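Hypothesis: this fold can be encoded by more than one sequence.
Test: take the structure tokens below, design a sequence, compare later.
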């Protein structure tokens, strides 16, 4: 899974960078804008954003402002703080996931299309619910790891 996500994210970054490069060259150097390029770039950009967040959730490398850790001195306190943080993340994330699911159902029902190329926007809209679901799975996984660690510390 690690190798797959690495190549997928690298490919998406490459596609987005190449699209932006083509846009700059054609629009500003050749003075001939490519119609619809912005629309097509929406899809890999949204997927890159969401899968990047999933990757950060998988690796547990999200940016955090761990101010409380300054005053906490033991590993047990750090683990309890991590559990509280994961629970809050899970509650907020599941709430956002329910919104993302409602939006996905709406996008499926309405079936919007992009204005120039008529590409269904559902294929980028669905990235939100898939990304949020994967992030909640990884958050629950990390929460379970912290609870097991705390239980192991308490058993000793």
């Amino acid at each position: 899974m690690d190798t797959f996500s690495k190549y997928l994210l690298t490919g998406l970054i490459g596609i987005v960078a190449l699209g932006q490069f083509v846009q700059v060259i054609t629009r500003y150097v050749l003075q001939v804008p490519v119609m619809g390029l912005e629309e097509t770039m929406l899809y890999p950009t949204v997927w890159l954003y969401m899968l990047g967040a999933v990757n950060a959730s998988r690796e547990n490398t999200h940016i955090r402002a761990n101010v409380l850790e300054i005053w906490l001195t033991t590993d047990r306190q750090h683990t309890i703080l991590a559990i509280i943080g994961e629970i809050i993340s899970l509650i907020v994330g599941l709430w956002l996931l329910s919104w993302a699911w409602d939006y996905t159902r709406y996008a499926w029902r309405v079936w919007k299309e992009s204005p120039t190329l008529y590409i269904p926007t559902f294929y980028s809209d669905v990235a939100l619910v898939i990304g949020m679901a994967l992030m909640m799975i990884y958050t629950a996984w990390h929460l379970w790891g912290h609870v097991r660690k705390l239980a192991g510390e308490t058993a000793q």
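The longest helix spans residues 75-110. The two ends are 34 Å apart (CA to CA).
Hypothesis status: open.
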